[in-house]
Amino acid sequence: QVQLVESGGGLVQAGESLRLSCAASGSFFSINTMSWYRQAPGKQRELVAAISSGGSTSYADSVKGRSTISRDNAKNTVYLVLNSLKPEDTAVYYCNVNWKTDKGGVYVTTQTWGQGTQVTVSS
């Protein structure tokens, strides 16, 4: 099993920056794609950014150019830096990790969600 601990959320002013962190721990064979999602009140959860095990990244159009996702494989941690924050970035941000475990020679891929961290941007 994999456990995720998120940190870094908070209340910021528009135009400021935040760095979110998500550390994975537990028993697994490997960690594959690590992602950040967000869910604003009354809206569906949406993908913000993702990073593969090889370091390839992708971003939602809404944050492209002002956010950076990265990972430290030695620490099993994924980071999301959000710059030039806007009030519409206000949401609960969730970490999602796809991980692989060895079930007696059969590799099984599972995903785990973090508990969420609130980001509030005031205008």
Structure, explained:
With about 120 residues, the protein is mainly beta. It is about 0% helix and about 65% strand. It is built from no helices and 11 strands. The chain has strands spanning about 1-5, 10-15, 20-25, 30-40, 45-50, 55-60, 65-70, 75-80, 90-105, 105-115, 115-120. Strands 2, 4, 5, 6, 9, 10 and 11 form a 7-stranded mixed sheet that branches. Strands 1-3-8-7 form a 4-stranded antiparallel sheet, with no helix packed on it. β7 and β8 form a beta hairpin. The chain is elongated and about 55 Å long. The protein starts with a strand and ends with a strand. The mean pLDDT is about 95.
Which structural class best describes the helix and strand composition? mainly beta
How many E strands?
11
Largest sheet: 7 strands, mixed
Strand content: over 45%
Radius of gyration, taken over Cα atoms and rounded to an integer in Å: 15 Å
Report low-confidence residues grouped into runs of 5 or more.
none
- Approximate helicity band: under 10%
Average per-residue pLDDT, rounded, comes to 96
How would you spell out the order of helices and strands?
A: EEEEEEEEEEE
Tally the helices: what do you get?
Answer: 0
Terminal Cα span: 40 Å
Using the alpha-carbon principal axes, give the shape: elongated
